[in-house]
Structure formats: structure tokens, C-alpha cells
Amino acid sequence: MMMMRRPEGAVDIHTHILPGMDDGAEDLGESVAMGRLAAEHGTAIMVATPHMDFAGAKRGACAEGARKADLVRRNTGILATALAASGLPVEVLPGMEIAIDPDLLSIIEAGEAVTIADSGKYVLVELPFGQLPGYTEKVMFDLSSAGYVPVIAHPERNAEIANDPNRMFSLVRAGAIGQLDAGSLAGELGRATRRAAEALLRHGLAHVIASDGHSPSFRPCRLDRAFAAAARLVGDSSALCAVRDLPRAIVRGEAVRLEDPEKYAPRRWFLFGRMAI
Ligand SMILES: [Fe+2]
Predict the structure, then answer these.
(1) Among 15, 55, 74, 143, fewest CB within 10 Å belongs to which?
(2) How many angstroms does the Cα of residue 122 sit away from the middle of ligand 1?
């Protein structure tokens, strides 16, 4: 079997490693197994980002939302203790993968959501898999204007963006960062998803790679295969930035500067050679 190069010190900002909170790890033993796999493949820091959908929940001084946020923080602490007791050199920090909502800013400001690593700055936002809601750009703009940075989880898996990667252009211009799933780049989610992920990465329409790991076998928490795929596409230095430097700045709540995105233009192929566009 071919050995993959480990991206040492990688930071994984999107995992479902907390036990019993969503469709991720089932129990603490599985969570520790996910942490072990991550550490074995070079990951040093993981953010636990259970799914949260605030649609229909009471807002404002909402006890339920705040309770969920506290539960995420408490369970992350329990997992951190278990990982340390197992001698694993991997740190785990709290977060949430939040379904996009027209009131996302007020949900965050009410303390009902957990930002990435509790940074108070970066927010992991999940889009639906089909249509992009009409309010998507406004939500990105509202968050940016208030000093937050929305990180869009796996845009390559949204049908509209996969069909037209330029749908990400205005979202990035509105202040969003794109996070690709490692499995998408490694080709584990099909050819169309891999192509969309590659197009987004090459054009500065996505910037970070994370595992979106759900178990030791379903989208495992490893970034080495995607790192290798990204390095072939954009070079070692940019690939390392996507799995280590940029996500490290995100968990520290530091400001990041991104290259301006480019408009995506599909490559055209002709019978006698390729015409690059
Ligand atoms: Fe996820």
C-alpha cells in the first residue's frame, strides 16, 4: 500500500467526534478511536462540530440554545480528558456546524451557538445540499459586517455550487471562507464532487480542507490523502496552508488574508490538443 505523506501539525476544523450528539461518534470509545486515527495521520488539533439546526427553536434568551452550547463545551472537555488519558497527542476544541438560518447573526449574538474553537470569530455554516437559499449572501454579509467570518462547510457538495463554482464567488467576496471535505478532494464522494472541489480550490473559492469525520470508517478523521491531492493541484505550500496554517489561524481567532478569488472558467478540450481558458 502506498504511504501517504503526513501533514504534520494539521488542524481539522470540522469533525463529528463528540459522542452521541449527532450522526457522528456513537460512544466515547469511538471518539477516542477517531482521535487516534487523526493523530496517526498528522493531525494535532481537532474541532468538534456537531450538527445544529436552530430552525423553529425559540430565540433570544433561549435556554435550549444556550444549553446545547454548554453541552458541546462540556462534552468536548470530557473527550479531551479521555484523549489525554489514552496518551494521544491531539487537542480537541469545541465548535458547531450550524445549518444556515436567516437569523444566524442573532443566534450567535444571543450565545446560542459555538463558534469554531470558541474563537468568537469564525463560524462553521452548513448549506443545504440542493438549492442555495435566497438569503445566503445576506447572511454572509451580515456576519462579516458584525466582525465574524463565516466558514462554509463543504460547498462542493451543494448542487448549485457544484454545477457552477462561481456561485461561491459572491459569497467569498461577501467575506466567507470555503472549507472542502477531505473525502471530496480524495475522490471518495464521486467524480463530480471531486471536480467541483478541485475547481473551487484552484480558483481561490475554497481555502481550508477538513475531514468532516463521522467515525473511524465513515469519512475518517485524516487529512493526508486530501493533502496529497491538493499538493498535486496547487503545490505543497498552498496545500499545507489549507490543512495546517489557515485552520490554525482560525482556531486561534486570528485574522487571515486570502488571495482574491478568480472566476471559474471550465477548461475546454479540442480534438487536437487543449485550449487553455
Ligand atoms: Fe459535517
Answers:
(1) 55
(2) 16
Q: Which residues pair with 208 in a beta bridge?
A: 179
Exposed (0-12), middle (13-18) or buried (19+): which is 170, by Cβ within 10 Å?
A: middle
| CA 16 to ligand 1 center in whole angstroms | 6
Which domains are seen in the chain, by residue range? 10-253 (3.20.20.140)
- Rounded to the nearest angstrom, the distance between the alpha carbon of 14 and the centre of ligand 1 is 6
Ligand 1 centroid distance, CA of 156 (Å): 13
- Ligand 1 centre to CA of 20 (Å) is 14
Distance from C-alpha of 212 to C-alpha of 71, rounded to nearest angstrom: 20
- CA angle at 19 for the pair 14 and 23, rounded to the nearest 5°: 65
Half-sphere exposure of 171 (CA within 13 A, CB side): 30
Residues 239, 231: Cα–Cα separation, whole Å: 5
Per-residue pLDDT of the chain (277 residues; tens, 9 = 90+): 455 688 899 999 999 999 999 999 999 999 999 999 999 999 999 999 999 998 855 454 456 667 889 999 999 999 999 999 999 999 999 999 999 999 999 999 999 999 999 999 999 999 999 999 999 999 999 999 999 999 999 999 999 999 999 999 999 999 999 999 999 999 999 999 999 999 999 999 999 999 999 999 888 999 999 999 999 999 999 999 999 999 999 999 999 988 888 888 876 655 554 544 4
**262 C-alpha to ligand 1 centroid (Å):** 26
**Percent of the chain that is helix, strand, coil (3-state, to 5):** 40, 15, 45
> How far, in Å, from the CA of 200 to the mean position of ligand 1?
18
- On whether the pTM is more than 0.85, the answer is yes
Ligand 1 centroid distance, CA of 51 (Å):
7
Ligand 1 center–CA 85 separation, angstroms: 26
